Amino acid sequence: MEQAESACFFKARKSESQSKGKRSSTSLPIGDGQRRVRGRRASPRAEPTLLQPSALDFRSKTLCSDASHSREAHVPSALPMAASSNMKRNYYHVFLSFRGTDVRHGFLSHLYATLDQRGIYTFVDREELRKGEEISPTLMRAIEQSRIAIIVFSKDYASLPWCLEELLKIMECKEQNDLMVVFPVFYKVEPREVRGGRESYKRAMDNHESKFGKDSEKVKRWKRALLDAGNLSGWHFNDGDDEAELIQSIVNELSICLRPRSLYVAKYPVGIESQVQNLISLSEPAGSDVLMIGLWGPGSIGKTTIAKALYNAIKDQFQDQFQDCSFLERVREKSNQSGGLVALQEQLLSQILRHKELTVYDVDGGISLIQERLCRKKVLLVLDDVDDMDQLDALARKGDWFGEGSRIIVTSRDRHLLTSHDKNYVYEVKTLEDNESRDLFGWHAFTNSNKVEIRRDLIDGALHYAGGLPLALEVLGSFLRGRKEPEWESTLHKLSKIPESKINRVLKISFDGLDENEREIFLDIACFFKGKGIKGIKEVLDSCDFDTIIGIEILIERSLIKNEGRTLQMHDLIQSMGQDIVNQACRDNPGKRSRLWLLEDVEDVFCYNTGTDVVKAIVLDLRPPIGIVVDLPLPEAIIISPDAFTNMKKVENAHFAWSAYLVTSSSSSP
Predict the structure, then answer these.
(1) With 80 as the cut, is the pLDDT of residue 12 above it?
(2) CA dihedral 401, 404, 405, 411 (to 10 degrees)
(3) Under 8 Å CB-to-CB from 501, ≥6 apart: which residues?
(4) What secondary structure letter does DSSP report for 100?
(5) Sheet holding 181-187, edge to edge
(6) How confident is the model at residue 652 (pLDDT cuts 50, 70, 90)?
(7) Sign of CA dihedral 552, 555, 556, 561
(8) Which of 254, 281, 472, 623 lies at a 20 to 30 A Cα distance from 101?
């Protein structure tokens, strides 16, 4: 059978289950009569997070004149600042202020040991630092560099000027917001003694007035600091109380306050800052309204990374507004575990309400608790990797669940899930620009200490394979780091046949979430129809009894394909993932795969009669893209065994197309 620029279809009886395929490539102040328990929690203030991705500067050295074989030594010139790895302004977690002879060798030593066991870095001064009436520069710096101060008010605390100077410095830092929070411990003294200047504290201040003068400004400042500190929430301990219980309460409180101020974003946050600022500018017009933002895109494109950076940036820029924050990671994964949604509801409530330990017994009870407890709280909430409406309904069904001005951010691979929910805005996360891809890849593949020379064409090949997906750039760059050119060549050749497993595993999550109809349509597009017109694709798939219109729409919503100029397109790595699903059925025997699209596989099946009833479709299109001249030999003929289709009982379509070729039967061959 001869044909030129035409298609030949071989039809067999329809199978009961059609499918199509894939490719292989690439408390309040304590007062008289109050219980001696810990007070209200202090709300940590978010530490500023800088997002300054730096452009990668490549230094090149041409070793030969042929541009296609030029070599470049790619060395990053300056390390970009990782979003949450920047140097912490606070050097100590806790500064302990105390009167040494009162508590140093008892309560204080026990508290310090427990804090140390918990990994809480605590400053306790040495006696030699406390000389004279002024505190030393070392103590001043330690106070300034601490996130929390605990003031142990004991009987003789106010008797020494340097204790009061410490207190004054601490309260000044608190006023300037340099300290996150200050907690008093009223150790065998009443809070009213401290703030009201009674008993031992009155005697101490009388002595200071005698020494410095009744109208001394210094003494007045000390009195004011005692009043302010005495009004803070803290702990009260008297003889007979359980010291171990007090210490445990203090440590638990500090552990909450010392939760990370910002989330770790990325080692090299390339291309993130601009997207974060775009999202913040989009949220500003909402004002006091509750705004829900959806981040949509395929797996490995960086939705979670952007969500973390946006979370940090909002906390930083609006630190006085968002004291109640929660970031729930891997919602899809966790919700599939036993009691998963209930556990996520408890996590959300505990992160925002902090001290209040609420038990959720079922999802409906959790919904009621979230509505009742959070409806007047201005919250910042991120739900990461949501893939089912039940998850949104259980955690953030409506904006009125939260107080005015709340911001709810949801990341998902499913656009329909976001648009059908109460979202004000859906933001599509796109692949990196070429220069950003080169920067990110360079940071992972090359370092100043690793001066290797790699040909430009190999680097371009790696960048082409990754296609602007951050995960692919990171994984491939890290793998090639320190390797020489032959290893680069071998790696790229391998990836042209079999996808990189880590990247493929992430991308395949979207496929696994599809129903059978959409899976089959996806595999057909991946194997046969990428870049083809929608009209023609619909005709072919409709003829196979697929629900094509809704199937294609769902694939677009799941970020697996795109409608571009009335053609269906997909990322090369997503196409590679789809084709690999088909090839995994039997890598050694193409006749045991559901779809055939490579010339060598088709020839093998036709010539040697190796097809089986697993095969559902054969499409061979060797025509080059319009406007592209390909100087490659095409086969003059394909030999088809007379019994080639005997065992392929499920074949729905067999389609061949190239410039000119011959298909012959082996029985008529000489």
Answers:
(1) no
(2) 10
(3) none
(4) H
(5) 122-123, 92-97, 146-153, 181-187, 235-237
(6) low
(7) negative
(8) 254
Entry pTM = 0.72
For 273-428, CATH gives 3.40.50.300
Res 465 pLDDT > 70 = yes
Superfamily name and number for 92-257: Toll/interleukin-1 receptor homology (TIR) domain (3.40.50.10140)
Q: DSSP assignment of 524-554, as one string?
A: HIIIIITTSBHHHHHHHHHHTT--HHHHHHH
Q: Is the predicted pLDDT of residue 412 greater than 60, yes or no?
A: yes
For CA atoms 83, 87, 90, 93, the dihedral sign is positive
- CATH architecture for the domain at 58-81+432-498: Orthogonal Bundle (1.10)
Average pLDDT over all residues of the chain: 79
Q: Which tokens hold the place of 93? A: 């977690």
Pairwise CA distance, residues 620 & 137, whole Å: 79
| Spatial contact of 663 and 15, defined as CB atoms under 8 Å apart | no
Residues of the chain with CATH 1.10.8: 58-81+432-498
Q: Is residue 574 predicted with pLDDT exceeding 80?
A: yes
Question: Is-contact 654 629, C-beta < 8 A?
Answer: no
The predicted-structure confidence for 296-333, as pLDDT tens digits, reads as follows 999 989 999 999 999 999 887 776 677 788 999 999 99
Q: State the Cα–Cα distance between residues 518 and 557, nearest whole angstrom.
A: 12
Residue 474's nearest CA partner among 435, 439, 520, 427 is 439
Q: Which of 73-82, 441-450, 565-574 has the lowest mean pLDDT?
A: 73-82
Name the residues annotated as catalytic.
166
What is the C-alpha separation between 234 and 97, in angstroms, rounded? 14
| pLDDT > 70 fraction of the chain, expressed in percent and rounded | 77
For CATH 3.40.50.300, the residue range(s) in the chain are 273-428
Q: Provide the 3-class DSSP secondary structure of residue 482.
A: coil
Residues of the chain with CATH 3.40.50.10140: 92-257
Task: Tell me the DSSP string of 249-282.
Answer: HHHHHHHHHTS-SS----SS-TT-HHHHHHHHHH
pLDDT at 668: 39
Helix (H, G, I), strand (E, B), or coil: what is residue 155? coil
Longest dimension (CA), the chain: 124
